[in-house]
Every structure is written in C-alpha cells, then in structure tokens.
Amino acid sequence: MSDRGQNAGASKAFLLGVGSRELIYVFLMGCAVALSFARSVAFGAGLGPEQMGYYAVATSIAAYGMFFQLGVMNGLNRELPIRLGAGGTDVAANLVGLTTTSLVVMQGIGFLLYVVVLSMVPFDDELIGNAFLFGGVLALSAPFLQLVFLRMRALQLVVEFAALQALTALLMLVFGYWAIPWLAYRGPILAIVMVNVLTFFIVTLLWLQPANYLHVDRSDLVHLIRVGAPLMLAGVVTSLMMGMDRLFLIKFATPSEVGIYQMASMPMTLGIIGSGILGQYVGPKLLFDFGANRDLSDVYRRALKSSLSVAIPLLLLSPLVTPLARLVFDRWLPEYVSGLDMVLVFYVSGVLIAANVIGIVLSAADQQFQLLVGSVGVTVLGFGIYVAVSREGRPLIWYAYANLAIQAINYGVVLWLAHRAASSVDPHVARPLD
User: Fold this and answer.
1) Sign of the C-alpha dihedral computed for residues 265, 29, 353 and 377 taken in this order
2) What DSSP designation does 341 have?
C-alpha cells in the first residue's frame, strides 16, 4: 500500500476512533442526565410536596459545604490537568495525595463546627433543623465523589468517567427511592451519601493510579489554596446565586410550597447537571491543552464555541417544554401541577447555566479573583431583587423570574470577563505553573 493510502487509512481510523469515543461519551452522559431526571421525578412522587420541601432544604444547604474546603479542591481542579498536560505525573500524584488528606481534615473540622453552631440555633419546625443537619452530612460526603470524577477527567478518561456518572446516578435513584418508605426525605440523602463514599474507596483502590498520600508540603498546599480559594469562593457565591430563591422561600413559604417550587425547577437542576457535564469534559481538556501549548486565545474560542453549541439548540427546543412538562406532571406528579407555569422559566435559566462554561478562560489565565468579583456583584444584585419580591409578597413564579434575570446577568458578566482576559493577556503568555 502506498504511503498516501496508509496515511488515509490511519486518518480514517483515527477519526472513527474519536467519533466512537465521543458517541459513547454522549450516550452515557445522556443516560446520566436521564437518570438524574428520573430521580427527581421518583423522589418527588415518593415523598410528596411537604417531604420534598425538607429534601430541598437539605440539598440547598449541602451546596455551601465547599466553603470548608478552603479552595483546595478547586486548586487541584485547575492544576492537575495542567500538570498532566505538561508531563508532571509525579507532581500530580503528590497534589492528589495532599488534597485528599487535607480535605478529610478540613471537612471534618468544618462539620464539627457546623454541628456546634446548628445546636445553638432555634428552629420553629424541628424537621427543618433536621434537614439542615442532613444537609451538612451530604456536604461532608460530596467531595469524595468529586475527587474521583476530577481525577478521571484530568486523566482524559472520558468514557470511563461517563460510565461512572451513569452508574452512580442509577444507584442513587434505586437506593434513594427504596429508602423513602422507611426514612422519608432522609432516605434519599443517606443513599446519596453512601454512593459518594463507597464510589470513592472502590474506584480509588481498584481503578485510579496510586497517589502519594504521605506527601505533606506546605508550599504546595498554600499554592492550591491561592489558586483555588477565589474559585471556591466564586463557587460558593454562585451556589448562593442559584439557590438564593430557596433560602427566601424557606423563610416566607410553607414546606409544601418549597416542594412544589423544587419540582418546578427540575429543568434548572438539569441545567446545573448539564453545566457540570459540559464543564467536566470541556474544562479539563482545555486546561490540559493549555498546559501543553499555553494558548489562551484558543481556550477562549473553544470555550465560547462550546457554550453557543449548547445554548442555541436548547433554546430552539423551548416551545416543547411546557407540553412535555404537562404530560409528566399530569401522569406522575399531580400534587405538583400548580407549579407547571414556572417550568418554562426554569428551563431558560437551566440553559443559561448549562452553557456558562466560559469561566474556564479566567481559570487558565490565573484570574480567578476576577471571576469571584463578578459573582459577588451579581449575587448582591440578586439579593436586592429577591428582597423586593419577598417584601411585596409576590407569588412563587416571581421568584422564578427573578432567578432567570440573575442567570442572564451572570452569563453576560462571565462572558465579558473572559473576553477581556483573552484580549488583555498575551495569548501565549501566562503565569508559570510553580
């Protein structure tokens, strides 16, 4: 065979391989999203509006657990793919080990402080206090699964990562729904905690490369915190931004109303999941390539392309949302049908969240503080909007509209900051890794 024929065959095989790999990834992640959606429907149907309200309180509180990580996980999220892209496997093993041991210590201390503070807070509804406690337990377990996913993404194990996503989603659905008759809203939470912890130990011991858990280096820890603390704070602020409506509703609405609102916001929840899926695939890949060629302008272009390729098709599908939602609510969730008018609003919010992956440009440019400042600004504005809505005693849908406005503003702010970073920094120059 001629060289040209061999090259053509190799190119074709390469394209087929990449295409097959991408197709498997999309299929498995689609399964993960479908199972997450089924989990929301199953939990809502099994719990009922009031118990679903307590479940929503617990999951909302758990979102702020990252505060006790001091940014170490976020720092590893940036550093690990860049180090691996530059060929630093030994350094990567040290960082993984240091991060794991640091998280165990910091999260343990943070949870104990949380329990002490919680014991001093009076609750009119004892179940609300219990929901806060179970939210803390859920937050304590979440980093274990996050660390496994982070390592797999950084190693470019995209198909294996997607398979594990689908498997954990299935296990959370099955065990969570099974536990509802015995433990009510606590059952799904404890099932998620169990899956988080067991997945960490099984996958770490049997699948991932060994990490150096004896590595204790203050300078490395300080570096991870310096890099990750702004990202962590931005993440906490973003969680507050996306869940602030529920915090106001905990104060001004009944548990049943919170449960109805939670089920109506399923499209937004799927958007958050979609953002994680897209970010987990695109982010480490862009950072890995950035570690190899250090081209910031290329990171911006590819991140923007990924964002638009998600947002445009999903927005074009929006006319189908309400009819499909009505079908689901009428058939499986009749107790929540009063929240149907909010579903489309939350769908658009979810699209904006899913497409908002452009912040990876600021991480690559080592401008995490800019992302934090932008998130704080949008959150302060959102707080003012929710205060106005609650003081006027507006119906639930006003909170949904407020959420949509905040997500739209946040998307625009992140896009502007990323464009400015890519334009103002020499595209081939960034801060050194060390």
Assistant:
1) positive
2) G
